[in-house]
Amino acid sequence: MSLLSNKTKEKSGLANTLMQILTNKGLAGPEKYIIGLLDSQSDAFSILDQDLRFVFVSNNYKSVLDMQDENSEIIGMHVTEFVGKFIFHKDADLIAQNGLHASSLVVTTKKMATFLRTTQMGRDIMVTVSPLLDDSGEIMFLIQTIKNLPDIDQLRGQNFSFYETLGLIHPMGNNKNSPIFHCTRMQEVAERARQSAGVDVNVLLTGESGVGKDVIAKYIQVASPRKSQPFIQVNCSAIPDALLESELFGYEDGAFTGARRNGKHGLLEVANKGTLFLDEIGDMPLVLQAKLLIFLQDRYFYRVGGIEKVKVDIRIIAATNADLEEKVKRKEFREDLYYRLNVIPIHIPPLRERLEDIIPMVNDFLSQFNKKYMKHKEFSFDALCLLATYTWPGNVRELKNCIERLVVLSKKQQINVDMIKKELAYRSPELFPEGDTGGARSLDDAKELIEYQLLKLAAQQYNSHRQIAKALGTSHTTVSKKLEQYGISVG
User: Fold this and answer.
1) Do 278 and 341 lie in a common domain?
2) In whole angstroms, what is the distance from residue 275 CA to residue 457 CA?
3) CB-based burial of residue 225 (10 Å sphere; 0-12 exposed, 13-18 middle, 19+ buried)?
4) 0.90 cut: is pTM over it?
5) How far is CA 459 from CA 257, 355, 424, 489, in A?
6) Radius of gyration (Cα) for the chain, nearest Å?
7) What is the pLDDT of residues 8-21, one digit of tens each?
8) Please, which residues have CB within 8 angstroms of residue 38's CB and are 6 or more apart in sequence?
């Protein structure tokens, strides 16, 4: 029997004991004394049944939400009606219709969740919903606690959102460089990165520009034994060929005209004991490729103009958006260096091939930029659907830049579809000729994507179609058809 089940029994036993004591005292209507006991608690909380209807609301709960004092107004009310009536959220109806309010998600996941909301009076609150399960693991009640947030700006930078509860955010660590992923292909990338992190072996990251190769490289570093040592990133395409050798390997005094007196350490020496990340390695000139190959083989090098060996202990991670095998065939990249670097290849798919990752990234970037610019912006449901299905030719970099522009430039708190289309068209006017969606799939496709994610998560949590239907507030027939449509198996 689980610990939660034991706690449930203890609470049930306590309730029976209280009822027995009150009954033995001959008090009429002992229920009102239990209600009084609950209402004496300092926390602002409410209790919902398994059908998401209120069965108890404390006075403090009503006070925080600036509600009238009539308890009968709320008792028996469904949470969907409650959200639309008392919570000031422009997307309240859409969120409720799509099962994305806090309580329905807790029913789906059976896990406590925390959310940020704003009341009708403009008060920022934190809502925590906790499930109370019976011995068979089914939900008996939901306990909903709310607290005022005097310092909302600090909390908005954290991952309090319904996307996190959906299981759509999977950071690979607790540091700011941890990538966000959900799709199966990125889970495979993450596992391959984890496996390579523990050993000093060369890794070659491939993928289109902007997919986040630098983020995976940093993750490998922080997950490795070298995590406390330097991480030096060099963009081989951004440094002129004439300077790249001296930047990497350093130089001695008088090595060339304009050389610094006493010489200069190269980035290989700066990265000693740590990791050197060679980004866009495919653009490195052939002459320098030969010198890098010698270093990888012998683990020492000579500074420009130097005659003494310099030994360093570093790990090499390389990345490219080019087809190195094709470059090898064209004699533009050394074959022996390619195989030296390509010990563990990791390919990062473009964002258009992992649409499940877009909404979690949007949520994370929105939190970052709201905190950075002291804003409180949010996206409408339809806007999220457009973001989730746009093809993003610039990948993660384009998505991040777009979210930052929208947070900074949008005049309204809620960012809608028109604002997003305007920003994308401003960068590339050809994207939206005569109101076209600019590479985005239809709104129905976007809603299907979110529907698929909800059903997939519910299928992992429940063992039958009926349980899923009850959790998602729909019919058994609908669930069966949808599961068959998406090819989702239960259990």
Assistant:
1) yes
2) 38
3) exposed
4) no
5) 69, 20, 36, 7
6) 29
7) 344 444 455 545 55
8) 56, 58
